[in-house]
Write a structure and sequence with these properties.
NAD; quinone; EC 7.1.1.-; quinone binding; mainly alpha; 2% strand; NADH_UbQ_OxRdtase_su1/FPO
């Protein structure tokens, strides 16, 4: 293992960057394809049917145990991938060809770029410090993820406009309106987390790795995940994440029932596949950010940080504390949490019916945004009361104001449109 580390350190930084970039593409693309298969299996499981389980190449049918892979639908994934790459790629004559071809490429760029600022695990060095596994460990990590991922909507707008067709155009317009409606709430929901992390007099940061580090401290509040400290912020972020990734019940940009297929109606073959790989990539990155902010990142359980697990492994055998083994362990924990979140995305898709478009807009502007603003004001006041030690009277006043504001937000239910 030491030889591998020395070989890696001896490589030129440019070569290291190229290898890291290729590794990202090599991981995201297969995971996007595997997610499409997983979605088909999950939907089949929820609907009481077997799902894809028939495909089996005749030249491997003799291999003992191959039927297990057949039942899992692995060969359907291979067949679908081959079909996507090699079938005829239609290019309608009425589209604006340059922008029509550019849109799927634009969809992939944010999906492959944002992963550079997301830590995927950590290891413990010889000094006992937890070092995050991240391609670009910058202090503005969260800002970089938000800034780049928001560019993904331009691909939907571009695809809808360049298709020169009314249904894709309406899908593109819906996508842009939905992004604006929910991005504000998502951004406001994470501010209380960093208000909590950036204590007065300390060094300010928006690093996702620092958010995990803050949830790994000793003590009751130190080891508590932010989903327990700030549950409203977590809910607002999660709902906004569903809307930002165009997943049911927020898939207004596609809306098969009223827009045929929305922005991708005119697309097929590889270009269509790129849109869906980008959608699954956004789901994975969004799930990773949610886990880093609210679910402890690579820590296995609340109040049990990775450093404590390393101490337990060291008591068993010093070999188990090697940085590569610890890095793989933390990566496994983190990926397991991300897969759990992906399952939640699929579970909701096949359980909750699609909202109407007016309900999506009202929920974003009339419910979620006031809730995000109120949540931010509550934690700003709570942190000030705590730091200034203002006493019980201020806490009581804050509780009364919070109850009144919550009632005001939820007093009026979503109204049906007049017929």
């Amino acid at each position: 293992m030491s030889a591998i580390v020395e070989l890696w350190n001896s490589l030129h930084p440019v070569l290291q960057a190229v290898i890291k970039g290729l590794a990202v593409i090599g991981v995201i693309f297969p995971l996007g394809g595997a997610s499409s298969l997983a979605e088909r299996k999950v939907s089949a499981w929820m609907q009481g049917r077997p799902g894809p389980n028939r495909a089996l190449p005749f030249w491997v049918a003799w291999v003992p145990g191959i039927s297990l892979l057949q039942r899992l639908g692995v060969f359907h994934l291979m067949a679908d991938g081959g079909k996507m790459f090699f079938k005829e790629d239609p290019l309608p004559g009425h589209v604006n060809k340059f922008y029509f071809l550019l849109a799927p490429v634009v969809a992939m760029i944010p999906a492959l770029t944002t992963v550079t600022a997301v830590p995927l695990g950590a290891y413990v060095d010889e000094a006992g410090r937890v070092v995050p596994l991240i391609l670009a460990n910058v202090d503005i990590g969260l800002l970089a993820v938000f800034a780049v991922s928001s560019l993904g909507v331009y691909s939907l707008i571009l695809a809808g406009w360049a298709s020169n067709s009314k249904y894709p155009f309406l899908g593109g317009v819906r996508a842009s309106a939905q992004l604006i409606s929910y991005e504000l709430s998502m951004t406001l929901s994470v501010i209380p987390v960093f208000l909590w992390i950036n204590v007065p007099g300390g060094e300010g940061t928006l690093s996702l790795a620092k958010a995990v580090e803050f949830q790994s401290q000793p003590g009751f509040l130190g080891g508590m995940w932010f989903i327990f400290i700030m549950p409203v912020a977590a809910i607002v972020f999660l709902v906004s994440l569903f809307a930002e990734t165009n997943r049911l019940p927020f898939d207004m940009a596609e809306g098969e029932a009223d827009l045929v297929g929305g922005f991708h109606t005119e697309y097929g073959s590889l270009k269509w596949g790129l849109f869906f790989v980008a959608e699954y990539a956004h789901m994975m990155i969004g799930s990773a950010v949610f886990i880093l902010l609210f679910l402890g990142g690579w820590n296995p359980l609340p109040w049990i940080p990775l450093s404590l697990v390393v101490e337990w492994l060291g008591a068993v055998s010093p070999v188990l504390t090697h940085p590569i083994i610890v890095g793989l362990l933390s990566l496994g924990i983190f990926v397991g949490k991300v897969l759990g979140m992906i399952f939640v995305f699929m579970w909701v898709r096949w359980t909750v019916p699609r909202f109407r478009y007016d309900q999506v807009m009202k929920m974003g502007w009339q419910k979620l945004l006031p809730l995000a603003i109120g949540n931010l004001l509550f934690y700003a006041a709570a942190i000030a009361i705590r730091d200034l030690q203002l006493g019980v009277a201020y806490w009581a006043a804050l509780a009364v104001v919070t109850v009144a504001a919550t009632w005001a937000i939820f007093a009026n239910p979503l109204q049906k449109p007049a017929l």
